[in-house]
Write a structure and sequence with these properties.
The protein is of the alpha/beta class and about 280 residues long. The protein folds into two domains: about 160 residues, 3-Layer(aba) Sandwich (D-Maltodextrin-Binding Protein, domain 2); about 90 residues, Periplasmic binding protein-like II (D-Maltodextrin-Binding Protein, domain 2, 3-Layer(aba) Sandwich). Helix content is about 40%, strand content about 20%. It has 13 helices and eleven strands. Strands 1, 2, 3, 4, 5 and 11 form a six-stranded mixed β-sheet that branches. Strands 8-7-9-6-10 form a five-stranded mixed β-sheet. Strand 7, helix 5 and strand 8 form a beta-alpha-beta unit. The longest helix has 17 residues. The chain starts with a strand and ends in a 16-residue tail after the last helix. About 45% of the residues are buried.
């Protein structure tokens, strides 16, 4: 059976799916077409049910419950770190100052945006492609930016300074990791197939962790000129034990994030969170 698999063109996702892309594991009769697009685009496509399996922001998952279930593998958790609000170096902005500024954000369905809203309430924002945000803040086009992906490690190189780390704020607020993204799968593929597909994807993640050097070399193709050591650090932040399985704390974090978002009227209430059973 042929399946479409959407994920971001980033080193952590590439690392996760190295074994799958390079035929390093038994795919149990399934073939996978890798579709690389930014997370905002994948979120939008998920609302239309276009891909069989897709990376998705946990924020966006609240809008696609009718079509997709969450896989227990493939999560990106920020455990005491995460998306960051940044401004030009020397600006001296505090978190409270951000409410009066225009913030460039990577998408209104991203978890980064949800965390921003939970932290600060109503904020004036404008959607900008995630990799363009640092440059547009550095140039003065925007007062501040909400950065994701490798920008969390490179913002100082762009002449920016940290105003607030959303993962730090969330950890202090809840004691939980910040659940940024996961993998979702179309429920109409058939309930009996879903655990097997999850097992294949988990095997790919485990193979990357077990063959880190080879998987990292492959992932560097999407590292956007990051040195290998920095790319390795970034991969380690988001491909780890949480990625193999949400676990109790990850599960609790997802439920708490979605509850708080609904309580504040930012997203629809999720009455029942649906995870595929692990096989």
């Amino acid at each position: 059976m042929h399946l479409t698999l959407g994920h971001s063109p980033d080193p952590d996702d590439a690392f996760m799916f190295w074994a799958l892309a390079k035929d390093k594991i038994d795919t149990e009769g399934y073939t996978f077409e890798h579709i690389l697009q930014d997370i905002q685009t994948l979120n939008e496509r998920a609302t239309r049910g276009e891909l069989d399996i897709t990376a998705i922001s946990i924020h966006a998952y609240a809008y696609v419950l009718d079509k997709y279930a969450l896989l227990p593998t493939g999560s990106s958790m920020g455990d005491g770190y995460g998306p960051m609000i940044v401004a030009r170096k020397g600006s001296g902005f505090s978190t409270g100052d951000i409410k009066g500024l225009t913030v460039a954000v990577p998408g209104h369905m991203t978890t980064a945006y949800l965390a921003l809203r939970l932290c600060l309430g109503e904020v004036d924002t404008e959607v900008v492609e995630f990799d363009q945000i640092p440059g547009k803040v550095a140039s003065g086009e925007f007062d501040a930016g909400l950065i994701i992906h490798e920008g969390q490690l490179t913002y100082e190189d762009d002449g920016l300074e940290l105003v607030q780390d959303m993962g730090v704020w969330w950890k202090e607020e809840t004691g939980l990791p910040l659940p940024l993204g996961g993998n979702a799968i179309r429920k109409d593929l058939g309930e009996s197939r879903l655990p097997t597909i999850n097992r294949v994807l988990k095997a790919s993640i485990q193979a990357g962790l077990d063959n880190r050097e080879e998987a990292l070399e492959y992932a560097l193709q999407w590292a956007r000129n990051m040195p290998a050591a920095r790319a390795d650090k970034f991969v380690g932040m988001y491909v780890n034990n949480f990625t193999l399985d949400y676990g109790d704390s990850g599960d609790k974090a997802v439920r708490e994030l979605l509850k708080r978002g609904a309580d504040q009227g930012i997203l629809p209430r999720v009455k029942q969170l649906e995870f595929v059973a692990a096989s």
